[in-house]
């Protein structure tokens, strides 16, 4: 208990220091604070405050009720579970609590949104840093609520329900492409009321925000990985323990990467219910550039709506930007097929996942390169166990290295084909380095001074060509 309280105090300090730094950086937030009662007429103040208080309590009840379907039927007392953070029934796995935050050092803001603020926390030595999700005191959700209800403590509690809901979803929807929930710490034991209400942190594995601009400039292999991970996630969500889950707010900023793997981190807008309907017309999926109509089922639900919305959002926010551009020539017809079936909602998530896994298989095995003539490698002299020094580099795009031309290849044969297509290329080296699919990294160069022993490398030098016949 003693250490929990210390951690709780620490948490409050972290929240404060992060807020101070946020205040300094976010100029637009300055000066927006008003004193709540300044303009109210003296006679009506108490009545008005009472009405606001009741409205806020109604909202709190509403939020609690919305969470009931997410709790598993096995929970002994779902009602109590909704009351206090400490009783939120999360899985039996090793859970981190306030105790693990006791030796927390140096927090840094990782990201923020309408609702939440995410900071990095370094824990005791030897432990990987974690991400803490907190209520964003400067966020739109808090500002709007305080404007409406003039009660920061009550508002923090109201907003913290989104965090609580997200935590339950993260626990129920554990998957390699969902950020790992490590635990939580509620700042005040017993939720004693007053301004400390809702001061809580959800402890997550730390990722890096998805940088779309950076991703657009990366090799196709990395962009394909993001799309494949997304499809694996959507396949899981379509048949999750909570039923078919739809992501209502589907944007790249809801995702992070952990060691190159895409993970969903923002789940507060996930819905596990299909929309209710009376007629087919109620089941129209509307997007800015496309509408789709679905059937209303006999039990009065738009069956399959969540899955379809997810697929189309994946198409419009991810595939269109990441997938077609620079796809390997042997795979473009398969990529085009995916673009068409997802953009037209002609394939379900099973078929879409199958199409992606098929591409991965071909790409890994090099089967898509079947039409490269084997003789192409005869243009090169191979030197095994050697690397090069005094290299003359040239740049290509999109390269794994800023300084030179480094591309992934399936084999020396594919590398030879690439070298032949670059006018500057005089040699290439294969190293032991591999990409996430297991392909080799090949270093293409104009030339080099000499060969040096290197047990892990192979150098291929272009043979001198016979002089070309002069033009007639
Ligand atoms: N585990 C994490 N590791 C690193 N960064 C993270 C992590 N989780 C979230 N972030 C970053 O913090 C940002 C805000 O988190 P989140 O999306 O959950 O908040 P939000 O208030 O719901 O945002 P929005 O207004 O976009 O819905 C994210 O966009 C992401 O960049
Ligand atoms: C989608 O439907 C809405 C409402 O019925 C309509 O106003 C809009 O023009 C449609 N959009 C497209 C792209 O068809
Ligand atoms: C899918 O293919 C059809 C037929 O070629 C074409 O008319 C349609 O525009 C394509 N749709 C998308 C989303 O690419
Ligand atoms: C999709 O695949 C799952 C198994 O992964 C299977 O249970 C389900 O029936 C399939 N759905 C359709 C529509 O084929």
The number of domains is 3
What is the count of β-strands? Answer: 18
Low-confidence stretches: 20-41, 76-84, 188-195
Instruction: Please name the fourth-level CATH homologous superfamily of the largest domain.
Output: Phosphorylase Kinase, domain 1
CATH fold descriptor of the largest domain: Phosphorylase Kinase, domain 1
- Counted by DSSP, the helix tally is 11
Largest sheet: 6 strands, antiparallel
Describe the 3D structure.
This protein starts with a helix and ends in a 10-residue tail after the last strand. Helix 9 packs antiparallel against helix 10. The chain folds into three domains: about 1-30 and about 50-205, 2-Layer Sandwich (Phosphorylase Kinase, domain 1); about 210-370, Transferase(Phosphotransferase) domain 1 (Transferase(Phosphotransferase), domain 1), CATH 1.10.510; about 375-460, Hepatocyte Growth Factor (3-Layer(bba) Sandwich), CATH 3.50.4. It is globular. The protein is about 35% helix and about 20% strand. The protein is built from eleven helices and 18 strands. The strands form five sheets. Strands 13, 14, 15, 16, 17 and 18 form a six-stranded antiparallel β-sheet that branches. The protein is of the alpha+beta class and about 475 residues long. The relative contact order is 0.08. One 2-acetamido-2-deoxy-beta-D-glucopyranose binds near residues 286 and 289.
């Amino acid at each position: 208990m003693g250490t929990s309280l210390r951690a709780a105090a620490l948490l409050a300090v972290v929240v404060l220091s992060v807020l101070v730094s946020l205040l300094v950086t976010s100029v637009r937030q300055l000066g927006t604070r008003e004193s709540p009662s300044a303009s109210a007429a003296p006679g009506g103040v108490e009545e008005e405050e009472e009405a606001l208080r009741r409205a806020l309590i109604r909202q709190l009840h509403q939020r609690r009720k919305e969470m009931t379907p997410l709790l598993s039927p096995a929970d002994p007392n779902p009602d109590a579970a909704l009351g206090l953070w400490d009783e939120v029934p999360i899985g039996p796995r090793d859970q981190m609590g306030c105790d693990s935050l006791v030796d927390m050092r140096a927090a840094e803001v990782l990201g923020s949104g309408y609702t939440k603020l995410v900071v990095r926390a370094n824990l005791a030595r030897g432990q990987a840093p974690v991400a803490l999700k907190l209520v964003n005191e400067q966020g739109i959700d808090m500002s709007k609520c305080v404007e409406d209800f003039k009660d920061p403590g009550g508002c923090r509690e109201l907003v913290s329900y989104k965090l609580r809901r997200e935590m339950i979803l993260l626990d129920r929807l554990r998957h390699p492409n969902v950020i790992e929930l490590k635990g939580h710490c509620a700042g005040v034991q017993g939720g004693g009321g007053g301004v400390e209400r809702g001061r809580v942190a959800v402890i997550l594995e730390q990722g890096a925000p998805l940088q779309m601009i950076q991703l657009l400039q990366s090799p196709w292999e990395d962009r394909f990985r993001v799309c494949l991970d997304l499809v694996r996630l959507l396949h899981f969500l379509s048949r999750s323990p909570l039923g078919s889950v739809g992501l209502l707010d589907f944007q790249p900023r809801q995702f992070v990467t952990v060691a190159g793997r895409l993970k969903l981190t923002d789940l507060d807008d996930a819905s596990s219910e299909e929309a209710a309907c009376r007629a087919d017309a109620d089941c129209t999926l509307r997007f800015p550039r496309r509408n789709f109509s679905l059937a209303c089922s006999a039990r009065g639900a738009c069956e399959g709506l969540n899955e379809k919305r997810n697929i189309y959002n994946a198409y419009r926010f991810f595939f269109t930007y990441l997938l077609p551009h620079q796809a390997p020539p042997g795979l473009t017809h398969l990529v085009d097929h995916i673009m068409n079936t997802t953009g037209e909602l002609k394939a379900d998530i099973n078929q879409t996942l199958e199409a992606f896994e098929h591409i991965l298989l071909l790409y890994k095995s090099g089967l898509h390169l079947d039409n490269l003539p084997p003789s192409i490698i005869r243009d090169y002299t191979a030197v095994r166990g050697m690397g090069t020094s005094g290299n003359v580099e040239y740049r290509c795009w999109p390269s794994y290295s800023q300084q030179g031309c480094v591309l992934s290849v399936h084999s020396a044969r594919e590398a030879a084909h690439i070298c032949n297509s670059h006018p500057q290329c005089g040699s290439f080296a294969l190293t032991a380095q591999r990409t996430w699919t297991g392909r080799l990294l090949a270093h293409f160069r104009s030339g080099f001074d000499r060969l040096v022993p290197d047990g892990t490398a192979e150098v291929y030098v272009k043979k001198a060509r016979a002089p070309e016949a002069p033009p007639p």
